[in-house]
Design a protein that fits this description.
Elements (H helix, E strand, L loop, with lengths): L2 H4 L8 H13 L31 H6 L13 H5 L8 E6 L5 E4 H6 L3 E8 L4 E11 L1 H7 L7 E6 L19 E5 H5 L4 E6 L2 E2 L9 E3 L12 E7 L6 H5 L23 E4 L3 E4 L7 H4 L13
Parallel strand pairs: 1-10, 4-11
Antiparallel strand pairs: 1-2, 3-4, 4-7, 5-6, 5-10, 7-8, 7-9, 11-12
Length: 301
Amino acid sequence: MTIDQVTPRKLYLDRRRFLSLASTVAAVGLVSAACKSETGDADMISTPSPQLTDDLTAQEVVTEFTNYYEFSLSKSGIAQLSKDLITEPWELHVSGLVRNPRTYDLDDLRGFNNKERIYRMRCVEGWSMVIPWIGFPLQRILNDVEPLSQARYVRFESLHDPQQMPGQNGGGFEWPYVEALTIDEAMHELTIMATGMYGEHLPNQNGAPVRLVVPWKYGFKNAKAVVRIELVEEMPATFWNSYAPREYGFYANVNPEVNHPRWSQATENRFGVGRIDTVPFNGYADQVAHLYTGLDLRTWY
């Protein structure tokens, strides 16, 4: 399956017209949008979120401004530093407390029912974007491998290759980059493995060839260049939570009522829009808040 079969490229040549149309459709009571691809396949665009009418962040901003400490502590210049990263061939190993351990290659991952998901992305640093990802629900993989009853967490490990990733040579961090979700978070339909964005395969600087996207959490939870998924019983140690637990919690749900120890989280700087109010769970509360019943969301996670 080519990327043009997943999302028609011409859609991005008139994105503002598409968003205007989607806004009109939503106003008459429809909550999702679908279109036909040039190949005739129906329902190739899926947005199970309330954010369809948000203006997309300009593609050049998303590809030029990104955190990727494996290459540099700077947010700019990552495209140049990562341009020679080898992302094909690629293997994603899934193991741990599962009945059917599997290894997926890129053909497998791109051959799943990849659809467009227009999601907000909120960084813990206080800036945000709206990005049209292309991907598939993580539950597609988890259903394949059949988690055992003891599996309570899903651990994600990113590529560790200091030769290709100069930022992994020292710097005081413990590599590789590791993140994790609860099994319920991982199985939620909004949680996806992204293989593309803006109608194209993922650029290296944005986590090629496959990355995690969890739209109601701060961006550092979204591991890039994932090579291993492991289902485990105990809560795993994660990269930022291990480095600075007071600043980077395990759950890390977007919460305007809980400030970062060094700055407020009540507002955010949306690229192309300006300063806006941050909303609980990044606007996805009606879909995910039930996952945290009994947890005190006023605490810093």
